[in-house]
């Protein structure tokens, strides 16, 4: 599903014509970058147009990471030069709002980190299920002097209320499965040993239902719950603007010095590490 | 309160002029049908116009069933030929939106199944309390290739967030008291032995308050929380449209072959049984 | 920060230029009255205009009381004669909406009663943390035949859903930390021994972040979550109207006869006592 010059980072498997799995497989960290965008776009387009698919499950093949932050090694122009998507939004928010509206039920099964784009994809999906022991959700961006760009300021307050949304976004810390469940950030946190069977049973169940009833019911929920594209649009611009500011450049540089984008403590405990960026360096 | 040709399915008891109880008593299953509509309409009209009533509790006299799905034995015309209600909506959604706006506090005390209409009535009420052991909430409709018709696509996302609302509606499965509480589908799930005393104490308390303060406060909450009638309206039409489609007719016919509308496993475990309808028949 | 004729009821401490604490210190009950308004206004104005502050924590120095109800000994005119604030709203709702929009992160640390204005200030803040054992939240007003005036009918349904909001407002009872957390009335309830360290760590963390990223992110959340001023405005008028009615006057008089505005059982168990006001007096 990708052209020959790209590494395939997203694997689409059809368990049946009605039940698809989309697996993030970009080791070691499942970082999301400009080269991931067209691959995800292919998946979303297929979900929009296939006549048989009723349910899709997003999961990860990479230990410890569901899907994590944007690629900060890639040149910014690789993201910004991409033309807007069919909605007129930039490619990433475009795909996420299209996923929310797609005539298919999207489930995410979160084991490991869903940070930044990973959390944003989860929030744009229809239902979120998390490993109680192994899921970590986070919008880490403010900790690096960035503004999140993929919709969480529009989606999180509608989902979990303003107070908890502000804690997630402005605390910028790692959120474990049990708190994510308490807050409604995920539908449920399940014991890790039960997560796969639960999600598979729910997806199999939904795949056995009538597509028209699914689509009509989801459409009516969408009318009563989705932010408009106009409410989503400012976030990407704010993200790009924040990325150009010296405060973000300095914090990201420090993160790189400490191991950003490499397997290790900075990536696995990103919430902890962004909490050190504004502290005098002797305190590390 | 009903004309002589109808069996009384809804019993109104005035514990005091300020505190009413409305008990569903249509054994063996508390199925809601076209003949129930005028009875409920009388209750809602009385709640709208009585000058003394401050609080009403809806409960059930039927073991195992709070109030369950629509009557699929009755001819569809018995429902569709009824004229719209005062709001211009069809009779069922009309009564539910009028209940939400009525100048009285409505509590539901859920023991047994609140499926389909039972869940929709609960969602249109002001507060929901459930037996932790014995309450089962569900919007089962999508499992039978139907679209729910009484407002849950408008009400559930506002109450519990889009993700959990989609799980309830598209999973179409039975939701137990503890999950209903976690999701906010009910205000609280209480141990079955404590439910009646809790609800009665709260209703008695509210009945001791000043009606004007109750009405003015509820009105301001309504302005900030209720969907508009225009957001409710499409659901009934979508329900009627879905009911006419072959997929729904086939699934409902299969449900009847397996015991629908009779006391037994299909009615008590409806979530399980709709999960079998789309599966090749050898698997039952 | 207050003029010489006033007792200082609100103490502002700058832990650092970026991290402020605002402590309610008006023993014995932390009652909020017309003389508190200009003091709180000074704090809110400082939060709006200071260029360095990033986070503020509201807490209490009074044992048993975070911040409680309005002062009913003060003449009503002392409140109503105050000119509207910069938003055009009356002074109390004006300050609360300005706090919600201020370019700073506001946390409340609730130990003891947050009743009436105390709850309303908490709801207007960005995040709420409560002592599991010692926090009591309540909107008690309806129990005294009053309509709350400081925004909870607009803010609570958006935060915790219509059903739980109606329970808080129309039940008018004391809500303990664990239920407040379950309902989302607070972000989290923490063991009392852990509350201060948790809130201080979160505030210290946020104070280490970049102010621009905080402000831009909060602004986008605000656009997706705050009620408009027009939705807030009717509450104060409804409160003033209710205060003038005989039902409220009689209930408040009875509360005073039983110990209102004095240390003792009426103030510490206000939820219980408003539940007695409409009951024949022999039952006390």
In words, what does this structure look like?
The structure is a homotrimer of 284-residue chains. Chain A starts with 9 loop residues before the first strand and ends in a 10-residue tail after the last helix. In chain A, helix 1 runs parallel beside helix 3 and helix 5 crosses helix 6. In chain A, strands 1, 2, 3, 4, 5, 6, 7 and 8 form an 8-stranded mixed beta sheet that branches. The relative contact order of chain A is 0.13. The longest helix of chain A is centred in the C-terminal third of the chain and has 16 residues. Chain A contains 13 helices and 8 strands. Chain A is of the alpha/beta class and 284 residues long. The radius of gyration of chain A is 18 Å and the shape is globular. Chains A and B meet through helix 5, helix 8 and helix 9 of A and helix 5, helix 6, helix 7, helix 10 and helix 11 of B.
Short description:
With 284 residues, chain A is an alpha/beta fold.
């Amino acid at each position: 599903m990708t052209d020959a010059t790209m590494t395939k980072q997203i694997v689409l498997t059809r368990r049946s014509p009605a039940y698809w799995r989309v697996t993030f497989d970009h080791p070691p960290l499942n970082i999301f970058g400009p080269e991931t965008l067209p691959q995800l776009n292919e998946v979303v387009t297929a979900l929009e147009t296939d006549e048989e698919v009723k349910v899709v499950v997003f999961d990860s093949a990479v230990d410890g990471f569901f899907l994590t932050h944007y690629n900060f090694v890639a040149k910014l122009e690789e993201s910004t030069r991409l033309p807007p998507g069919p909605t007129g939004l930039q490619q990433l928010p475009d795909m996420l709002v299209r996923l929310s509206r797609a005539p298919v039920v999207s489930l995410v099964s979160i084991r490991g980190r869903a940070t930044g784009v990973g959390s944003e994809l989860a929030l744009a999906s229809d239902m979120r299920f998390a490993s109680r022991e192994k899921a970590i959700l986070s919008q880490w961006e403010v900790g690096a002097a960035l503004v999140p760009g993929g919709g969480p300021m529009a989606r999180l307050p509608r989902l979990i209320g303003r107070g908890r949304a502000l804690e997630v976004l402005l605390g910028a810390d790692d959120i474990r499965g049990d708190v994510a469940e308490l807050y409604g950030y995920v539908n449920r946190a399940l014991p890790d040993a039960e997560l796969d069977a639960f999600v598979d049973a729910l997806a199999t169940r939904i795949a056995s239902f009538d597509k028209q009833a699914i689509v009509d019911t989801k459409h009516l929920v969408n009318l009563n719950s989705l932010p408009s594209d106009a409410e989503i649009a400012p976030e990407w611009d704010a993200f790009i603007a924040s990325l150009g500011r010296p405060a973000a450049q300095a914090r990201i540089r420090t993160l790189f010095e400490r191991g950003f984008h490499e397997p290790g403590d900075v990536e696995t405990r990103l919430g902890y590490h962004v909490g050190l960026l504004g502290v005098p360096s002797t305190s590390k």
